[in-house]
Design a protein that fits this description.
The chain is an all-alpha fold. It is built from 19 helices and no strands. The protein has a single domain, classed as Growth Hormone, Chain: A (Up-down Bundle). Helix content is 75%, strand content 0%.
Length: 427
């Protein structure tokens, strides 16, 4: 067990290609931008005169837009090629940052939020995700797939955490330079656009996903359709619960309930997201020992119990303690979930499977910020956290009941090798 744990903490698993490194680098650039704007977006909108309900509405539009675009990407990826779509996605990211920096009024911003790549969540819910996931699976052997996705998630989460930590810098610059905060925040969104350009340079170096991989009439999911639909259904419940406390709304609640400053909240989220990132590496030996589904459920369920306790915390330090304990457990299902989906579908269906399982998550998480924002206008208790934690706990139980008997192929091989010809397991 010790040797397995030591291997899990390597920077990258064995046999990883240069393409995987470029994909992970691009994920880091995007995640830094997402982490930065997820914290500053509510401040930016409130400074423009919008209310909390409007912040929730724009968060909903960004998630709905991501869902629509991601579904379209999954249907055409194998026909157009992964790399072309990644380059187009970077152009959308750049346009999103420029749009938020220069446009005025709710409706222009709503249009950019819907068609762009702005992410109000701590996780990645953009059209980049299915493209990167299906390409990463091509760059590593199946026995190292979970470890690679753990590093992919690690880089994304750490970069996102650095982005949240940097959220206090614009306010600092505004004070030092004696310039309006609005102008500094405009520059932040232009910086977000520039990160899209840097990610484009990474994707241009890819040697995989350059050409179409199937004919124009090939079904995107094929024989994997049944299990993908089942997975998408249960994943959507998890995402619907998570949408009640997307990072932008969590910022609003901590400020409203305890009067915490943006800089303090950014530091809190940095520590929490860093704990989540480290937990990705722990998930690798756990999944090898107990299986992907068991690791997903029995780390995620306790984290949701902790989340439901947060609204009852009478002080900021107790609320933060509960949140930190939750962060340490809640994201171990991220690399294991991705690895499981990529393992149980046919290779030619991976891009579509990543898309179809991501789209219901985006749609479901797009619905809940709106009522969550409304609940925050009524009470500072933290009803969104309580409701979200309960829904996510139900998801854990459904996942266990429906998929525990369907392990990943490599887990089936391990089980089969442990059963000798007589049919009895080795003692």
């Amino acid at each position: 067990m010790a040797s397995v744990t030591a291997r899990a903490w390597r920077l990258l698993p064995p046999d990883v290609t240069t393409d995987a490194r470029w994909l992970i680098a691009a994920r880091g650039l995007r995640a830094f931008g997402d982490g930065l704007v997820s914290v500053l977006l509510p401040t930016y909108l409130l400074d423009r005169g919008f209310d909390v309900f409007t912040v929730g509405a724009l968060s909903t539009l960004t998630l709905f837009g991501s869902a629509a675009v991601t579904l379209g990407v999954g249907a055409v990826t194998n026909r157009l090629g992964h790399r072309l779509l990644l380059l187009v996605s970077c152009a959308l990211m750049a346009g999103t940052g420029i749009g938020f920096a220069v446009l005025e009024g709710f409706w222009p911003l709503a249009i950019v939020a819907f068609i762009g790549t702005m992410n109000p969540s701590a996780g990645d819910v953009s059209l980049f995700l299915p493209l990167e996931q299906s390409l990463l699976t091509q760059t590593v052997a199946s026995r190292h797939r979970t470890a690679l996705f753990a590093r992919y998630s690690l880089v994304g989460t750490l970069a996102g955490a650095l982005g949240t930590l940097s959220a206090g810098i614009p306010t600092l610059f505004s004070g030092i330079l004696a310039v309006p905060l609005r102008g500094v925040l405009d520059a932040v969104f232009l910086f977000y656009a520039a990160l899209g350009g840097l990610a484009l340079l990474c994707y241009r170096r890819l040697s995989v996903g350059v050409t179409p991989s199937v004919g124009p009439r090939a079904a995107p999911l094929g024989d994997s359709r049944g299990i993908v639909i089942r997975l998408a259904t249960v994943f959507s419940l998890d995402a619907f619960g998570g949408g009640f406390f997307v990072q932008s709304l969590l910022v609003v609640w901590l400020h409203q309930r305890f009067g915490a400053s943006v800089s303090a909240i950014g530091a809190i989220l940095f520590v929490g997201n860093s704990l989540s990132a480290l937990s990705f590496l722990v998930a690798v030996p756990l999944s090898r020992r107990f299986g992907l589904i068991n690791t997903m459920v029995f780390t995620h369920l306790p984290s949701n119990v902790l989340l439901m306790l947060v609204p009852f915390a009478p002080t900021l330090w107790l609320a933060v303690t509960l949140l930190m304990a939750r962060y340490a457990l809640s994201q171990m299902d991220v690399p294991t979930r991705t690895s499981y989906v990529m393992a149980v579908v046919a290779p030619e269906a991976r891009a579509a499977a990543a898309s179809v399982t991501a789209v219901p998550r985006s749609l479901a998480s797009a619905i809940s910020p709106l009522p969550a924002g409304y609940l925050l206008t009524l009470s500072a208790f933290g009803w969104p956290l309580l409701i979200g934690g309960l829904l996510k706990a139900v998801y854990d139980l459904l996942l266990l009941l429906n998929f525990r008997a369907l392990p990943a192929p490599e887990e089936q091989e391990v089980r089969a090798s442990a059963v000798p010809q007589g049919g009895r397991t080795q003692g």
